[in-house]
């Protein structure tokens, strides 16, 4: 017996030795085939749509009348066409958001399209969208929130089965689903209780119906949240992470861990960056001028797809049931920019040499690095964890982007690399980074050289590099920036060198003959300013930028601020970069408040609260508020508005609240009732504004 097993062992060892140079052993956690296909998609669309679209809310309460859901001209083919033309590979829709409203006529809810006014209750958004995706060759995915503020069973054990039934409907009736998006949010339902989610039941249900669906959550198992809603993955980004003992939502790994992954993580759970093309996830008229600029989208793309993550870009559908022209125009401009950037891979002209390669494995060679195919690769021999790739050009080439790809089906390996270029007879380092993964894009200064070297300085196992690409991205003419100071003076600036800035104040798009901006001008009562940057005597122009402004705080004074009277002026200085905070004194706990004298009686239609942004937590951002208006600054009466800023913790952007009817008064008071972060004692405000228009 002993002899026999020794003999078998000897055979295994010798056959391994014979194959040592040809078979490349996988390293660490590995992607499934479905995860590999998913990673190749890179860029796809998110659509937030539902009752919130009609109420101007980020988080609905679940008690909205379902009849308010009534798009007048819904056209899912327009959504799919837009996604396709934008270069996206799929669409994920909010089949059910936290308010519980189902975009399909679920048998397990009475809060659905069936109860809405749309198509007399005969419509089904999932049916229309899945058909449109099929028509346009796009993959179809669904977001379903387990948090349900409408369902009567929510908060009881029965609800988990209700949710499973809904999943079965959505995943069983609309064809293949490439991604199931699970939101970890876990708030109270209609009976005031929170649900204990049965995640393994949910995940098993998804995989039974759609075995190759990628399940998104804070901890996967298919892909993970990147830890912010800004579209930024870590510069170091591992597709591996430890998930044992964690749960989606409050029990998730830290935001930093989600952002960077973990080098020796046990599971393959790559990052996905979810971010909205405009402020807020749902459509609002108020954000039509808050569509991200080309420069912002480019930064997001480079920080997501360019950092080993997929990009899920939200394009909210409006009240007609269509994508708004401001969003689609920007998406098309962005597509053109990407096409122009990645048109010509200069590396394909290079003579490629490498320090080391697998001698007896012809499938693995240096030419694979520049064949434009990320399934073919170059590899060093086993145990060689360093290596250099040199591209030599017969004529010097000019570039400002380098794209690197690792062959990840056998594991993510590279820990450190540098890029060097030949300059005055020697190599000079121009970039030093950590991980590569599926794709790494580096923006570099405009560089002209005849030799480029990529040095893999350290890897967890022999590096497998599938692509080295070089590109010359066109210069992007930056969009102008419009600002107004506390006194109401408007200034327009632009990051590009020497542009001519032209603007209008009547809402029309500026042309080259529109007034030229030369110095700040006064607009204390507010209005609309539209600006555009021109170069080459008007031949080239940036996209237009629009700013809608309300009354400026020139006459305002702080009347009272608890905890932090000294810096309270920063809440009303027309500068989002400065803020008022009550301070971190643990004894001074919630509620907190700020009172302001507007200096004149105004008819107020609402207010806006901009939270203070800081990556370091405990920012004093508050979730629940009450807002009062008074004529004498003494008698405040009942709040004019009270409620919560939906999703402010994950997405701390400017919150716009409109009153049911205008209220006149000279004094305003905002009370912070509950922090966004449970452990916060302080409250803070970067900017408080009133709406008079
Ligand atoms: C979050 C939600 O609370 C937001 O409303 C939005 O749907 C975003 C994509 O996920 O967790
Ligand atoms: Ca290749």
Q: Strand share of the residues?
A: 25-35%
What is the CATH architecture descriptor of the largest domain? Answer: Alpha-Beta Barrel
What would CATH call the class of the largest domain? Alpha Beta
Bound ligand species: beta-L-fucopyranose, calcium ion
| CATH topology tier name of the largest domain | TIM Barrel
Q: What integer value in Å does the Rg equal?
A: 28 Å
Q: Count helical runs.
A: 10
Shape: globular
Summed over residues and divided by their number, the pLDDT gives a mean of 94
Question: Main sheet?
Answer: 8 strands, parallel, barrel
Count all strands and give the number: 32
What is the CATH homologous superfamily assignment of the largest domain?
A: Glycosidases
Strand order of the largest sheet: 1-2-3-4-5-6-9-10
Regions with pLDDT < 50 over 5+ consecutive residues? 6-21
Give the distance, in angstroms, between the N- and C-terminal Cα atoms: 90 Å
Structural class of the secondary structure composition? alpha+beta
Bin the helical content. Answer: 10-25%
* Tally of distinct domains: 4
Protein name: alpha-L-fucosidase
GO biological process, one term: glycoside catabolic process
Pfam family, one: F5_F8_type_C
EC number: 3.2.1.51
């Amino acid at each position: 017996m002993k002899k026999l097993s020794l003999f078998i062992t000897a055979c295994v060892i010798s056959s391994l030795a014979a194959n040592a140079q040809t078979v490349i052993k996988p390293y660490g956690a590995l992607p499934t085939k479905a995860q590999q296909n998913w990673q190749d998609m890179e860029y796809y669309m998110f659509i937030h749509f539902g009752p919130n679209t009609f109420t101007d809310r980020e988080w609905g309460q679940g008690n909205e009348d379902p009849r308010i859901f009534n798009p007048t001209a819904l056209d899912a083919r327009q959504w799919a066409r837009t996604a396709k033309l934008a270069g996206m590979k799929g669409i994920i829709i909010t089949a059910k958001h936290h308010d519980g409203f189902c975009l399909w006529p679920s048998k397990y809810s009475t809060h659905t399209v069936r109860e809405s006014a749309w198509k007399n209750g005969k419509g089904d958004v999932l049916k229309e969208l899945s058909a449109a995706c099929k028509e346009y060759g796009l993959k179809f995915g669904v977001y379903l929130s387990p948090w349900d503020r409408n369902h009567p069973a929510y908060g009881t054990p029965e609800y988990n089965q209700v949710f499973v039934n809904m999943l079965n409907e959505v995943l069983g009736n609309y064809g293949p689903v490439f991604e199931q998006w699970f939101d970890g949010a876990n708030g109270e339902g209609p009976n005031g209780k929170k649900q204990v989610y049965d995640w393994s039941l949910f995940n098993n249900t998804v995989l039974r119906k759609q075995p190759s669906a990628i399940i998104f959550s804070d901890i996967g198992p298919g892909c993970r949240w990147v830890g912010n809603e800004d579209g930024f993955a870590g510069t170091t980004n591992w597709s591996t992470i430890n998930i044992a003992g964690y749960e989606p939502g409050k029990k998730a790994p830290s935001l930093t861990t989600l952002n960077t992954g973990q080098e020796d993580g046990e599971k393959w759970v790559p990052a996905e960056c979810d971010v909205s093309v405009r402020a807020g996830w749902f459509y609002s008229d108020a954000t039509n001028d808050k569509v991200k600029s080309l420069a912002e989208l480019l930064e997001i793309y480079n920080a997501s797809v360019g950092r080993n993550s997929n990009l899920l870009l939200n394009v909210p559908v409006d009240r007609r049931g269509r994508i708004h022209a401001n969003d689609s125009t920007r998406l098309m401009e962005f597509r053109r920019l990407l096409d122009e950037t990645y048109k010509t891979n200069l590396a394909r002209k290079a003579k490629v040499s490498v320090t080391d390669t697998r001698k007896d494995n012809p499938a693995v060679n240096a030419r694979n690095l520049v064949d434009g195919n990320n399934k073919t690769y170059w590899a060093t021999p086993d145990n060689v964890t360093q290596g250099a790739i040199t591209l030599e050009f017969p004529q010097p080439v000019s570039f400002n982007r380098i794209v690197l790809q690792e062959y990840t089906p056998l594991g993510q390996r590279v820990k450190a690399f540098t890029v060097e270029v030949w300059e005055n007879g020697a190599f000079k380092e121009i970039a030093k980074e950590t991980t590569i993964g599926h794709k790494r894009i580096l923006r570099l200064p405009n560089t002209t050289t005849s030799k480029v070297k990529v040095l893999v300085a350290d890897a967890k196992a022999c590096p497998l590099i599938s692509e080295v690409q070089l590109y010359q991205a066109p210069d992007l003419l930056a969009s102008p920036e419009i600002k107004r100071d506390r006194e109401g003076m408007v200034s327009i600036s632009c990051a590009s060198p020497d542009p001519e800035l032209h603007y209008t104040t009547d809402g029309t798009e500026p042309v080259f003959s529109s007034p030229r901006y030369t110095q700040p001008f006064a607009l204390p009562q507010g209005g609309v300013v539209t600006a555009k940057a021109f170069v080459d005597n008007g031949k080239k122009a940036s996209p237009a930028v629009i700013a809608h402004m309300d009354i400026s705080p020139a006459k305002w004074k702080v009347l009272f601020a608890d905890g932090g009277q000294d810096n309270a002026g920063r809440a009303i200085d027309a500068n989002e970069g400065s803020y008022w905070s009550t301070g971190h004194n643990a004894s001074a706990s919630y509620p907190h408040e700020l009172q302001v004298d507007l200096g004149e009686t105004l008819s107020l239609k609402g207010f806006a609260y901009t939270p203070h942004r800081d990556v370091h937590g405990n920012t004093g951002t508050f979730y629940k508020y009450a807002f009062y208006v008074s004529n004498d600054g003494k008698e405040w009466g009942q709040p004019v508005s009270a409620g919560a800023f939906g999703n402010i913790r994950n997405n701390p952007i400017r919150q716009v609240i409109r009153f049911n009817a205008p209220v006149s008064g000279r004094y305003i008071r905002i009370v912070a009732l509950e922090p966004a972060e449970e452990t916060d004692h302080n409250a803070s405000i970067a900017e408080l504004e009133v709406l008079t228009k």
